[in-house]
Amino acid sequence: MSRARQPPLVTGISPNEGISWTKVTIRGENLGTGPTDLIGLTICGHNCLLTAEWMSASKIVCRVGQAKNDKGDIIVTTKSGGKGTSTVSFKLLKPEKIGILDQSAVWVDEMNYYDMRTDRNKGIPPLSLRPANPLGIEIDKGRFPQKDLESLFPGMSADFTSENFSAAWYLIENHSTTSFDQLKTAVVNLKKQANKKNEGSLAYVKGGLSTFFEAQDALSAIHQKLEADGTEKVEGSMTQKLENVLNRASNTADTLFQEVLGRKDKADSTRNALNVLQRFKFLFNLPLNIERNIQKGDYDVVINDYEKAKSLFGKTEVQVFKKYYAEVETRIEALRELLLDKLLETPSTLHDQKRYIRYLSDLHAPGDPAWQCIGAQHQWILQLMHNCKESYVKEQKGSNPLLHSPMLDLDSDVRPSPIGHLSQTASLKRGSSFQSGRDDASRYKAPQQVVFVEKLTKLVVSQLPNFWKLWISYVNGSLFSETAEKSGQMERSKKNARQRQNDFKKMIQEVMHSLVKLIRGALLPFSLREGESRQYGGWEMKSELSGQWLTHVIQTVRLSSESLTALEIPNDMLQIIQDLILDLRIRCIIVTLQHTAEDIKRLAEKEDWVVDNEGLTSLPSQFEQCIIHSLQSLKTVLDCKPGEASVFQQQKTQEDVCQLSIGIMQVFIDCLEQLSTKPDGDIDTSHLSGDVSSPDLFGSIHEDSSLSSEQRLLIALSNCRYLERHTFLNIAEHFEKHGFQGVDKITQVS
Q: Domain Exocyst complex component EXOC2/Sec5 N-terminal spans what residues (predicted)?
């Protein structure tokens, strides 16, 4: 999580005074990292965020709004630094009054002036229609500071239209250098204006006297005529005509003026509507902008716009704003659903998961998206593991594994070759190498179970680190942004993580149990319970894996365990893997000893009866080399890695290994007895002439193809003597060197 920045500090504003909607430049420090980081700007208590234009971390340009306070601070608020402070202030000036006939470069709001047609006062008295220069002489603005004048005339004003008008202030401000004669002229001008006003009213009355008298004469004539006729009929007729004329005139006037006033009201309404649309176009365009940015994948822009709209219009009471803000909320809810679907999609990278979780937290999505993602990843890993098993079981049943199983280049692998000791047999002293009865070519074809374990462990090692890192990020709160941290969402997440530690521990244990049971089902099916065989087993066990492949599997599982330990997963969760490794090591030892006994049993077929000067054949040497190579192939299995227990810690294992070792010795003794008592006709000497052992390499060799039973017995006794004095002692030393228990029992049988 990034380090918190310093709060914003405003150190200058230019200009430092002005009327509403004045464009100002704000300078300072830590004013944000970008336009999206700026979330608040007030001048004299008025929100100016809508007009703000972020230029750099030390400069912002905006327009001053219609503030309530005449003088106030400039406060900048950012996501990264919070609410800032100000060392300067801005003074809001009252705008100058502009007459209806005065030239002006600004728009004059007509609603703020007196409407003489309707005789309605819309905020400013008719006094404001006076000329801008009431004295009628040249205005000479003085250089007196405004602050000094305010202190000299507290509560007063130089505006002659104000109720608190101060004549002295007006003269000092506008005529401080005017001569006395000019001031006399100004007095005369004021008197003339006052007389014109009175004369104007009187002249208006005088000008209408003729019309008044004409109307009076007409009415008198009508009245006299009515009296002369004396008939009610004429009176009613004339009266009705007069009323009709007056009504038509009144209706015509009303129609004309209503049409004009209606057009004005319509123009005012249109102007106000355009003003509202222009001022609040951010909100009106926001639903469409959200849709466009979602399609482009600019989720950060959508979130910033939503936060801005929420702070400005979240609690509005204006119906049109409510309607558009509700549309914004509908778009945001659809975005939450879209991001949640993307979060739960598999496969997905850790970077994308963290990004979608941060988006959902900034949008205040309900529930706990991070925990939902952890649960989805857990189920996906389990599904991958079982799908892997099903695919390999299906392939094994549908094809010949010896023809279609992949080849493993064991010699080029960084891990020790599981068959290195047995596949490369050194030349023996007697010229005959130990050859296994199994096919060497098929030995390098990996069985389906071995390939499956390789694939399964690779899958877990590749997926579990991201799963574990996602949980760690969930615990320490690094999944959330600084906005979520300030809103308290991070603390709630940490609290939820503490409550769900046991649930996550169960998830890890379930993954480990599935991994171990799937491997057991492929290699150690007898170790599964009855109800687990169908779920984790299903393999066709035509023949058991050799010790070489079991050694390879053990090395693979060990490397996987080391990779998981490097993630700092607690050891108690990985103990089940150590138990699996121990069982595989024990099984590998037993299988290797069993195969060794079979190889030794076939040594009788390889006896060539070629003796050296000491009367020995190659049989004792072949026997010793067979034992040594078997023990050497078990070296990596017998060695204990960190965290592993000795394979001989269990008494039953010691007894089983001891019995197998004794069985090997007994098999060889039976082999010697078989050779010494074999009838003459059963001796196969056809291979002697083609044997690679030649006199020039191994000294005196007697190739007699007609050995009698006494000669064979004599050679067997010679071999037995050599075995007793040398071979068995060497074998016992190797057993002890590799940690075998009960060596005395093993050698005692000899």
A: 133-747
